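Self-study notes.
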Amino acid sequence: MRPVKKDYLLYAVTDRSWLRGGTLFEQVQETLEHGTTFLQLREKEMAKEDFMAEARQIKGLTDAMRIPFVINDNIEVALAVDADGAHIGQSDIAVTEARRLLGPDKILGVSAQTVAEALLAEKQGADYLGVGAVFPTSTKTDADAVSLATLKEICAAVSIPVVAIGGIGLHNIEQLTGSGIAGVAVVSAIFAANDIADVSKKLREKCEQCFA
């Protein structure tokens, strides 16, 4: 499916660090049912066959709920499971090559930290940008900081949706109001929560207040 701006409001990026005896599928189902509007499946260590099996299972959920579903960093898996698209970083495959492989109809998200990176990604075929880290984050300790001023400059420079990422939770979402973003991408704020359903609902409500 092709997302519209409101689909980027609450963008969840999976992390199996906090399964606590459950399954990622169960966690994803909870957050999709209670507020998440866009899902990125991120698996850095999983064998390809297991990754594809998991992706197919989760795609069944996102298809049924009509929620955009992209794969992090892995175009091959995205195509194999017919995900809605993929998200790539600056050090991954080139944007032009990712767009060529995905074709014109799949979603392509690209990480950016500067106006120059953002403009180039848009020119080369990105459908949306992930910009961060806007706050300190334990999820990706090597992520460089992006100031609120730079975030605003990026949003003003491009015509595609921008999603802020990095250390975002209920306690600081309001600080991003007026930046021009379409929504926020969260990892631990959802998947490390004791009550994923409750926090997903509250995050969605907060995003609607700040960005809708």
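Second protein, same conventions, sequence then structure:
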Amino acid sequence: MSKTGETPRFKRVVLKLSGEALAGSRGFGIDLEVVRLIAEEIRDIHGLGVETAVVVGGGNIWRGVHAQDAGMDRATADYMGMLATIINAMSLQDALEKLGVDTRVQTAIEMRQIAEPYIRRRAIRHLEKGRVVIFAGGTGNPYFSTDTAAALRAAEIEAEIILMAKRVDGVYDSDPVSNPSARRLTHLTYRDVINQGLGVMDSTAASLCMDNGIPIVVFNLTRKGNVRKAVLGEEIGTQVGGE
């Protein structure tokens, strides 16, 4: 049980943050106030005793898909995107440590001057010691998204759930921005995600979660306290699991 008396439903989680989440309303770059607010959400669940790993994207700095469309080599564009995730990881680490949360950044691309290389057993040990581990550099390979990195790391560290932080409060049957009548889907199977292309995560990531039985909850990160609600097992957003 946590110091607050609340008992989390999950002991070990992976929080997936898009790069865009760190940009706030600007849509690009890093909004340090937004990063601080996200760090506070992470600090709150850390305070509940939840072993927390974070996977960050890099779309606020570099979009490899757009570069590829403009003629850049796909592998080169993807590697540049991986470097962007490391910049984001460092900003989140700084915000967390200013709040008194011990952290480690591990990257799939070695940069020993600023972060540890990704080592599965070391990552697990950090979590067991109460450190927040931030995974950067994607999978370390081009052609794979940071969603796939989140699914892969979750399987490797035996996380109990992936918390997919979005700007909307779940998955809808159509775009809620353009369609006011769009209906939020409260429960989905992995195959729903894969077959219907619902935008939860890409098919490779969803298949990894399905094969390893890792549930996913898609929720609105911008609503204060939602990360805490997710780890306490409250019904928020869209729950993904089962075939």
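Instructor comment on the second fold: The CA atoms of residues 175 and 182 lie 7 Å apart.
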